[in-house]
Design goal:
Bound molecules: 1,6-di-O-phosphono-beta-D-fructofuranose, magnesium ion
Number of strands: 15
Order of helices and strands: HHEEHEEEEEEEEEHEHEHEEH
Distance between the termini: 48 Å
Catalytic activity: beta-D-fructose 1,6-bisphosphate + H2O = beta-D-fructose 6-phosphate + phosphate
Mean pLDDT: 93
Subcellular location: Cytoplasm
Low-confidence stretches: none
Keywords: Carbohydrate metabolism, Cytoplasm, Hydrolase, Magnesium, Metal-binding
Cofactor: Mg(2+)
Radius of gyration: 19 Å
Strand content: 15-25%
Family: Belongs to the FBPase class 1 family.
Helix content: 25-40%
Oligomer: single chain
Structural class: alpha+beta
Largest sheet: 8 strands, mixed
């Protein structure tokens, strides 16, 4: 991509690349545009995280038993509102909603074909401590007929059926990074004028990296394969030891590893038999991005995007990042399956 493309606005990029999308009808472009708008609204609030009325718990728990933070709820409302008001989706599922939301899909005039799954605020434990957080989204074409009520089947699709996925990272700068199956591009928000500019075209994971990201506080509970891989990362050998970096926000750890080369792991453990991260609105979208950026994502054995979902909020073990590093970790998992 020539440098002249750099600093293209996100709006211009969406229009220019619409035709490269196999289902292009303008609908997905309008959807990405609405996510762009909601991201700016949420970014404005995130940047104030520290003021009393923004931080802290909202007082409710979500279906996963997690205390919802005020910003979890705020971001959830803003993304759902923005997409619903613009009548561009027929269904939305969210980490913060017990069940999926049908958006007037029973109305036969509703010709909308897309459903969206979102993690409105990723890295919630970092909101109050001024550490970067994110938003994650995944988009599918519905499988049930247009003009009929969406059903759970429209959401429980394998990740390899995604038509778009992305995230917003609210960090030292705010970026929107996404794919529609034709590579991964990153856009940085110029807060002075409220416009996203193409700053990171064709993002790719280096095949190898020297960063590993895992919550080592859970080490004793990890499967033997993961323990051995962590030891492998720490050995004095060749380009090792690798550097340990763990922000505790999936989006931020993924983003850093995609730029610098690295591996992120949230394995299963004797405490969490299926790990912590949710397949549909955390692992699938990050896996689609990873593969589009020449990286890899699995549960240690199976490609994440080939996993058949059975529940809206199901969790899976997650290993994702630079291709050769993920394959090495899988090798340790395979050789230590006790
Ligand atoms: O504190 P832990 O157990 O290491 O978990 C951190 C992980 O949990 C998450 O915060 C889960 O996401 P949410 O904040 O959206 O619930 C990830 O972003 C992060 O990688
Ligand atoms: Mg999350
Ligand atoms: Mg979340």
């Amino acid at each position: 991509m020539s440098n002249s493309k750099l600093n293209q606005t996100l709006g211009e990029f969406i229009i220019e690349n619409q035709s490269s999308f196999k289902y292009s009808s303008g609908e997905l472009s309008r959807l990405i545009n609405s996510i762009r708008l909601a991201a700016k609204v949420v970014n404005h609030e995130v940047n104030k995280a520290g003021l009393v009325d923004i931080i802290g718990a909202a007082g409710d728990t979500n279906i996963q038993g997690e205390d919802q933070q005020k910003l979890d709820v705020y971001a959830n409302v803003k993304f759902i509102q923005t997409m619903t008001k613009r009548n561009i989706v027929c269904g939305i599922a969210s980490e913060e909603e017990d069940d999926f939301i049908a958006i007037n899909s029973q109305d036969e005039n509703n010709q909308n074909k897309y459903v969206v799954l979102i993690d409105p605020l990723d890295g919630s434990s970092n909101i109050d401590v001024n550490v970067s957080v994110g938003t994650i989204f995944s988009v599918f074409r519905r499988v049930t007929p247009v003009g009929t009520p969406v059903t759970i089947d429209d959401f429980l699709q394998k990740g390899n059926k995604q038509v778009a996925a992305g995230y917003v990272v609210y960090g030292t700068s705010t970026m929107l990074v996404y794919t529609t199956g034709d590579g991964v591009n990153g856009f940085t928000l110029n807060p002075a004028i409220g416009t996203f500019y193409l700053s990171h075209p064709n993002m790719e994971f280096p095949e190898n990296g020297n960063i590993y990201s895992v919550n080592e506080g859970n080490y004793i509970h990890f499967p033997v394969g993961i323990k051995k891989y962590i030891k492998y990362c720490q050995e004095e050998e060749g380009d090792r030891p690798y550097t340990s970096r763990y922000i505790g926000s999936l989006v931020s750890d993924f983003h850093r590893n995609m730029i610098k080369g690295g591996i992120y792991m949230y394995p299963k453990s004797s405490k969490n038999a299926k790990g912590k991260l949710r397949l549909l609105y955390e692992c699938n979208p990050m896996a689609f991005l990873a593969e589009q950026a020449k990286g890899k994502a699995s549960d240690g054995f199976t490609r994440i995007m080939d996993i058949e979902p059975t529940e809206l909020h199901e969790r899976v073990p997650f290993i994702c990042g630079s291709k050769n590093m993920v394959e090495k970790a899988e090798e340790f998992m395979r050789d230590n399956t006790i």
